[in-house]
């Protein structure tokens, strides 16, 4: 399908439903130019970008779109609807997947359905579909070039859209330049490069016939050198055989291993004598250990007997104390019974007097209750009005406090985990081993790990800390192996990693950068809670038990007022009641009588309490007396046992005997051990091992030399009949012939290589002229970011090098060597230049940037905003971001992703 000249494309509305988190659907409206859609992480920005890509690149019958399905919704039909404008025509694309597979496209009066609609869409927007399976990057065409996925801004692949870019450049640069750069030049250069490729690789290395000829030369040289080496080795072998034969005859005459065998026999006899002496010392040590154990047991037995006598005395004293306590408790119990009877009689008299006074005061209280009820009714009505005002103020403060999420416990937990990280770091430094070397020499000592890798250098006067096994290597070959002590370093490292991960997880969960920010948020929350507490306190003062209770109190006051009035009316006037008696019941008299009743009841309760306490004390004292009596009897019985004295006497005699035997054996053993150490059994064992190894070495060496001399003699006899000199002459002739052939092919390869370079230079000049329009558009954006900078394109229309005069004397920087953020900036302005070129060719240029420029620093971000704003004057740009604070100065409203999504 042909494209309208300079067609203007603009996406007006995007609607999705049953797609990932958008189960109920969401609709966004877009304006021409720049559109910024913001929302927090996982709000659905990337899901919307994925929905647009699926609407274009995925077939509606595809089974490779399971990622669009909402979680655990097997019946969902993810649907995407896009309303757009193309020139003067309005268009609609609606596509459904999975449960309800459908695709419909309309543009003005024209309509398409199913696969036909998808093919028409691909023709309009300049992309293609995979013949089978899911969409792949090589099919994405113009949209894939202009749409930046989340986290992929540092990558750019022109290959899927190179044909479209080439068509746009060819129309702008002219037919002659296009033909020279793309067809005629390519054919000629291709033929020359093909001939060159028969002899040379792309890096200039030999291949094909040239490689084979050079290989033949090299093979002939190797064979010739090998023959020369064989001749030299034959002469050397003759000399070596002569020397070895003379040494063999000398060893057979001297027989040095016989003298070593005599020394070995003497050393083995000495070692056997020392082993027998050591066995006797071990037996004496075992007997000494038995005597020491017996002595300890006898001493423990005598100490136990002394403790038993002391325990009997203590228990007798305890029995006397318990008897005195029991007698005292019985006296207190008798004294506490008399006050109980007196207090009961006084309490009965006080209660009777109080009842009489209350009957006289009832009439006076009814009138007073009526007056008080009226006053309470009025007061409760006023308090209810004030409490309603305080309740409204409390609701405002509660809303403000709820907006602050951080609590004191969160801050304290965060501080504790930060302190734990710092403590583990200090602990790791503390358990490491500190080494320091002082020397007048300037040479440093190398430090190597157990696996052989280098851990650093130890210079004189500069301390080092080791947290793992290491070896110090001095220049003279000396070694010092160090194993750090202290805590388990591997376990400490694991604990440190766990503590650091927990601390970072809390920072991420609380959405704060550090503890200082958390402290600031807690201060704000504390202030809000303080204001909320004041509002709560004000409401509590007015309505201590709540609004409902206050309203109930007001109603109760009304009811009480009516009841008091009815009761007062029922009693009649005061003069009509018992006029012959002066009424009692004033407040002072009632208080006096009530105090008298309370005092009488308190005295009665106190007397009963004292009686109960005395009874409990008497029971406890009696129980303690019985227990002490039983324990004292048992202790006296144990002391009076007839066999106890005899056992103690035997133990004392046995202890004296064992002590004398132990001291004598210990002295004899110490003398024997000293003699054994003086004989140095370790040195004797080393002598046995040294002499045995020496004998074995001499015998083995003599046998090996005999066998080697015989083998060398047989080899020399065989080599003398090979005719090595004749073989060398034949190989020299073969090498000369191969060398002439290789020289001819090298001259041909050099000529083709030079011709290929010259043709490539001419073709590059043609490409530069063809790429000039794109270079100008790219330079327009680059100057907004880096004034005076230049960027070069390769033959595939990819940016290749960045030249900034302000850096390192105008160094040309390869784009792959730039930082992540710088590459993202370069590839974004390159996409904008492609869009300018394609728009002039009448192709759609919708730009979608998902979380772009998040790695751009604060210094370059304003320049990139100028670039985006300038590009939005010619193209529609959809920018999705989770950082709304970055884009508030772009001159367009930020469209918040609906929270209902």
Automatic annotation (TrEMBL):
InterPro entries, per database record: P-loop_NTPase, Rad50/SbcC_AAA
Sequence ranges assigned to domain Rad50/SbcC-type AAA in this UniProt record: 13-63
Superkingdom of source: Bacteria
Alphabetical keyword list: Coiled coil
Coiled coil: 210-315, 344-409, 518-618
Gene3D superfamilies: P-loop containing nucleotide triphosphate hydrolases (3.40.50.300)
PANTHER family linked: DOUBLE-STRAND BREAK REPAIR RAD50 ATPASE, PUTATIVE-RELATED
Record protein name field: AAA family ATPase
